[in-house]
Amino acid sequence: MKPALVASSDLLRARRTAELLAVETGYAGQLLVDPGLREQDLGAWNGLTRQEVAALWPGELAQRDSGAIVDVAGGEPGQAFRQRCLEALGRVAAACQESEEAVVVAHGGVLVALEQAAGAWRPELRHPNLSGWWVEVSNSGAEVELSAPQRVEVLATGVEVVSTPK
User: Fold this and answer.
1) Which of 90, 117, 118, 123 falls between 20 and 30 A from 80, CA-CA?
2) Residue 95's closest CA among 10, 8, 19, 7?
3) Measuring CA to CA, which residue among 155, 154, 152 is closest to residue 163?
4) pLDDT of 155 over the 70 cut
5) Within 13 Å of residue 68, how many CA atoms lie on the same side as its CB?
6) Residue 57 gets which letter from DSSP?
């Protein structure tokens, strides 16, 4: 697949992954870098290990691991984060013509937020790093409509997992 667009978060690790995917897919255009695809700002949790977060905020890390997009002291509120992710995806969709395909490189929290918006998030289908899914986006006005992911592909190993969310 040669995408019509490659987009990524503005964080270096995502940009670098997007650059590598662009080369692999033959995409020669300019990378669309959108800070709206950045991971949720976790405020007081930033810079701490999982063990430190679990010790300081018992139960909150487990809540996040179960799919909740939690509000963290000093961080970005969960609802604002979800909205930011949808708006960023809308900008990517607007940059493509109808039926064109784009590759978007973001982060785990962004993926969870978008899956939840599509009604497709399930804890047993949590994706590992370097995995992705194909989703159809319809950008009608200010609203972004997502259809449920139809296929998940683990890019790091080349293993494909087909999933159709309930």
Assistant:
1) 123
2) 7
3) 152
4) no
5) 10
6) S
